[in-house]
Protein 1
Amino acid sequence: MRSGRVLIVEDQLNFRKGLVKMLQGGELGWQVVGEAGNGQDALVLLDELQPDLVLTDIRMPIMDGIEFVGHLRKNYPEMIVIILTGYKNFEYAQAAVRLGALDILIKPCTEDDVRQIMNRASERFYEKYAHQQKQLLQRQLQQDQELRAVLLDLPYEMSTLVGLNQALSDKELWLLHMNNEDMANRSNGKRDMSLLQFAFSNIVEELVKGAGLEARLLLVDHDTFLLVAELHQVEETLQSSIPTASFEYLKIRASMVSMGLAPPAVDLAQLYLLTKEAVSDPIKLPSLSGSEAGSGIMLSLNQARVREMEVQLMSAILVGQEDSLLELLNRVIHELSLTSPEEMRLGALSLSIALHGTIQKQFDPDDQNALARLPNEMPQSQWTSKEVLDWAAQQVKHFLLQFNQWQASKSDNVVERAIKYIEEHYNEECRLTDVAAHIHLNPSYFSVVFKKTTGESFTRFVTRVRMDKAALLLRNTDMKIFEIACAIGFDEPNYFTNVFKQQFHMSPKEYRSSK
């Protein structure tokens, strides 16, 4: 999941730079992508930078915040906006809120004020991100249905050909066929078939993703998938690893055949039929109730369920909401208990894949095994509902155990190593993301652990270390103020003076005189 992108619009340079330093460290999960000193300049940057969040002051020259937000809303009605204002301008902030601002940050503000409001922005951002992903999946589902109809020579609207031709332009097609004899041995009708299709699709998608390939996978027939990839990007290693993994995990032989450059959509049915006949098995499975399109839709929905669950799990972890994480998992188990036996098995497998994927991405990002997210077993057709729920609960228990072990292992000596790094690099940029990368820890989680252990936020701790070093130089050297500022990692002497005053309640010059 990507970080949120922030544009800061503030005419007071020192305050703006302070916000940039606080956010740019990554401690709050946001990335500053641009700055502007007035609304007019900010409008130019919106299209170029495409931020997810705008922090804007009210009173600015040339174009103030109210006018800026008004223009912003015309092209970006859903963009998250936070208003910066002083107490005297509160009535202006009220007007901005009517324009859809998420909240108001009143100056002067503390670091905790910024943290609190940015956490709220994170929650909104993850909600929007999840909603956007759902809309994207719905559009993909619609196009999948259209592509499946064309491939199977089913009735379709001629107008769909234009969109399909655009989607398939300069794409290479691959047919993935699952051996019918193996599927017959592994399945007991449609119920097990859905599980096998779902498991196979996840194997292919993980291997494709592990190969760094952008591709699209579509279930066409009960035993056949279509892979749409960029031209000449499917390497031989991937062509061999998919059949190998299918047999290793599912005990199903699979073949992968190139269909060449995608032809015009109107010719797809003939190409698909010829390729399918070339690889078809002599053994035919009994006909299943329901259309292939229906099976494909269910598969797409289950894949969407996995991605949505991963977004929810990772957002809860990244914003440090352990209670929300437990509440989410308990709710999923409860909702499973209300479904039919077939839906329960598919839902339990979806949950397990999402949990394993989160473990791999969040707790063990160094794991290069593309199939680490797949469970060792799948719910079986002969299982009772209670057995499926028990299996799902066991998957959740395993996830929480991994989560707790990850927390504990990363906490051991991690803060000591972080402090040592800060002491050695305080005169450099020394961002939270740099320190987290040095100690191999997720930045958001490191932020939580650091504050819990030291009682201070990362930014506050680094600032205090720098100010203590500055005080030492002021007492024992004749260095000029701007030289000291530069020596401890500050580019702006005026900003350094303001921060020094906040800690020592006097200017650097006054501090030197008093000592």
Protein 2
Amino acid sequence: MDHDSSNHPDSGDLPKAPGKPRPGSQPDLPAKDLAQDLAQEPGSADVDPATSAAEEEDEARLPEAAEDTTEAIAEGPLAVGHAAIENAVRLAPTSPGVYRMLNTGNDVLYVGKAKNVRKRLASYARVNAPLPARILRMIAATVTVEIISTTTETEALLLEANLIKQLRPRFNVQLRDDKSFPYILITGDHWAPQILKHRGAQSRPGRYFGPFANAGAVNRTITALQRAFLIRSCTDGFFESRTRPCLLYQIRRCSGPCTREIDFPGYTELVREANDFLSGRSHLVKQELAGEMEKASAELEFETAALYRDRLAALSAIQSQQGINPRTVEEADVFAIHQEGGYSCVEVFFFRTGQNWGNRAYFPRAEKSYTPEEVLASFLAQFYDDKPPPKLILLSHEIEESALLADALAVKAGYKVEVSTPKRGEKKELVAHALTNAREALGRKLSDTATQSRLLEGMVTTLGLPHAPKRIEVYDNSHIQGTNAVGAMIVAGPDGFIKNQYRKFNIKSEGLTPGDDYAMMREVLERRFKRLLKPPEGDAAPIKADDDSFPQWPDLVIIDGGRGQLNAVREIFQTLGLTQVALLAVAKGPDRDAGRETLFMPDREAIKLEPRDPVLYFIQRLRDEAHRFVIGSHRKLRKKDIREAGLQEIPGIGPSRKRALLHHFGTLKEIERASIADLGKVPGVSAESARKIFEFFHAQPG
């Protein structure tokens, strides 16, 4: 979907940039700039800095296995539940509304909606009614029913979806791994618009195109669009500091507006073509480019014709990468559900402007007794709770309240929304394609989960754990001679790494001895576990052990180090009163060789595993992931610190050399990218000073 939050970038009141249009020529770029500009690849420059997010997509994961529905229901609790619901029936309205069933701990068990709340609750209160086992268990656990009246059934549906996402009730279908989708933004607040990836609030002036299924789909599309339309992806600061074209111009992925290699009218035309292509007028754009190519060829402008040829090839590459591109469907979301082994997978495809903008698999939490139609209906209401719907939604299964859902989404969106289950034609083919993907995605996830389960069971045998760990936390810290110290925690479980649970800790202790790893680890662990040990304040909801089927308390904590680190962490845990969490320290082998690690656990002899042992490989993966995450966190902190402090922190660099460096390179980022040889070419900077500057920016954290 295309959103325009500003005047079109080619509006007449924008300042014109004088230039010299040379679309077919490319100047030679000095070797120094080639080295410096490698960092201007789209992966680093096409993200809106105001709303950038981690680009590692959280992997969708399978929920906890559903409870056994054959469990016997005691007559006593069932009678108590019936009595509580009967009491609520007497007070319930006959109008639309939402009801919540609560247990003795005041936890919400179930959120439901109804056109007639009294009639719906009365159906639960019938003693001999033939109800599914999950409903009987819910009734048995219920002690209170709360009711919210609404004006219409549509309002009740929207409120129900919102409350399910907030409260995550145990007996509802739950949408998991929900996050914002990325968009492509062509900015409108600069005379030379920039193309970039954008998440979050669409407050920056420009045109937004999306949603895309994931960051990878956006990155691939932006790269191809750069080849096709030569629009810049660099930041405004980088753009303003250029005195010669960057590497992207050299490899024909930018038209070079920064140094006026193209003038304002020429660049504006490129932006118009990109907007037209993303708005669905791709056929018209390709016709225009083909015409320009033929014209240039007829006039013997073969270099210019070759440029148009390459741009046409880039456009064809975009559409070929998108796989299936419908002919009759302009804008739609396609949902298909497949169930197997007690699990559900919902595959979502996004089609905008007649193009496939990616797909994504979801694994909602639902008990085995839920039918595909029930899971899909609840999933859809929650999915669009915080997203704008398209004008058409195609489903693999007919849901009971499709008309009601369409009305509710139309109220939110402000335009008509159609929800349908196609029976024939191209729309049916799109749904069938999505269903195939749902079936394959669930099969892959079940296979991966089985492998992960075997590894966790192997840890039970190898480490002598009481049971397979559901939650593993791995800790590491990073610093350079005590500066920019940061600690990190990564989390893994039965479905692999749980990246939305990762945390970083900026070390805050005053008087910390530089490089004291024990003290840093103490601070990190105390901050982590004191928060869990602290009882909730006021109305804050307590942490539930079954929240999202993933515990907040770890079964196993892994640290990078030997017996000394293990004893230090054990002392911290004893101080905090933590006795149920298993500890494991992983010491590097001789010469830091992978496969020769030694494992340490409290009150046990050191454990040495064979280099090819799958459990050892799994532990190495956990440790390496923690190391990767903490190093990345440290580098971000260090870069921010360097940019805030400037060059004053480098020994031997005074005001004169600082001015010379900035005059030569333009920005601090360019100085950071420069090689030792390039730094040595600056007037007044000796070979020794160049080495110090380079080492300052490229020091390896410990």
